[in-house]
Amino acid sequence: MSGAVVVDASILVKLFSHEKEKFVAEARKLYSLIKLGKLQAFAPTFVLVEVLNVLAVVKNFDEDRVNEALQRLKRLGIVFADLNIAETEKLTRLHYRYGVTAYDALYLLLATNLGCKLVTEDKKLLKIKKHCVGLKSLKL
């Protein structure tokens, strides 16, 4: 695969998964392509907040492990993008059109702006085939 993708927290958390979760191997292959510069990856800066929350609350990582994970993500080569306040109407439109959280609409906004797919394992987002793709369907 070449080009660009947007990645969400459901994908980035897999980098730190030691459990028997689905698609961890595929996620690690994706990370490898990003790290080697063979695939450009983007994410809203807010993804760091979401990853922090999942690692701390769901995965029960302690503060040091969460900080280490966030540092690792920042070194991965992902381009982090902030919301352009001029695009709040477009963000709102995506939120209502697809019935997703405002946070998930932020990923969709970035993907539509870049003309690429959002790579996710979020079941609700995966129903939006026009904009989203899962790790299973991603050709790596």
Overview of the molecule:
The chain has 7 helices and 5 strands; from the N terminus they run βααβααβααβαβ. It is of the alpha/beta class. It has a single domain (4-133), classed as 3-Layer(aba) Sandwich (Rossmann fold). Strands 3-2-1-4-5 form a 5-stranded parallel β-sheet. Helix 7 links the parallel strand 4 (117-119) and strand 5. It is globular. The termini are close together. The mean pLDDT is 93.
Entry keywords:
140 residues, alpha/beta, Rossmann fold, 5-stranded parallel sheet, 7 helices, globular
**What sequence of helices (H) and strands (E) makes up the elements?**
EHHEHHEHHEHE
Strand order of the largest sheet: 3-2-1-4-5
> The CATH topology, please?
Rossmann fold
- What is the alpha-carbon Rg in Å? 14 Å
CATH architecture: 3-Layer(aba) Sandwich
Which structural class do you get from the secondary structure elements? alpha/beta
Number of DSSP E strands: 5
